Amino acid sequence: MRKKISAAIIGMGIAGVSLFSTGSATGHGYTDSPTSRQVHCAKGTVKNCGAIQWEPQSVEGTKGFPARGPADGTICAGGNSRFAQLDDPRNGQWPATAVTAGRSLDFRWKLTARHATTDFRYYLTKSTYNPTRPLTRADLEPQPFLTVPYGGRIPDATVSHQGTLPAGKTGKQLILAVWNIADTGNAFYACSDVTF
């Protein structure tokens, strides 16, 4: 009798875990070109990053940016308090990738778990951006400079998009990449610091 009860309890536990795990996106990913903050943390280039150093692919938050999604000041962490270190501007000292305004650039995602995709969007900060403060919507140009529609298709494990950076940018700026999942309410966020 005790074995039957134990088996029933274990079976109910497995069923419960299965029910809970289907509620969120099974896709995970991050940008590694230009190098994102989560990659700098995972590689140890930047220290004191907390849990993100082991989970660079897990910056998941509500989709619908900029109308919805992470609150201002929590955008780089996707609104996820576990990864708040990504929102810390570190006095403007995040390592930055050198880029050239008006030139083409390769944007690359590493997807550790692929998922049906609406699109990938790339936003750039305005000329008035202050890299010593947490990122807000007011810091970003209102429209993405690159949108790559996917129409619900599942992307490859490595995804590259070619895009032209806006002309006239100078100094330290930030690129926000957003991967919108098609069949859940979530998206993945990645912030890459760049220097024009």
Automatic annotation (TrEMBL):
SUPFAM superfamilies: E set domains. Residues 28-194 form the Chitin-binding type-4 domain. It comes from the Bacteria. Coiled coil: none annotated. One of its GO terms (molecular function) is monooxygenase activity. Keywords: Monooxygenase, Oxidoreductase, Signal. Pfam families: LPMO_10 (PF03067). Residues 1-20 form the signal peptide. This is Lytic polysaccharide monooxygenase.
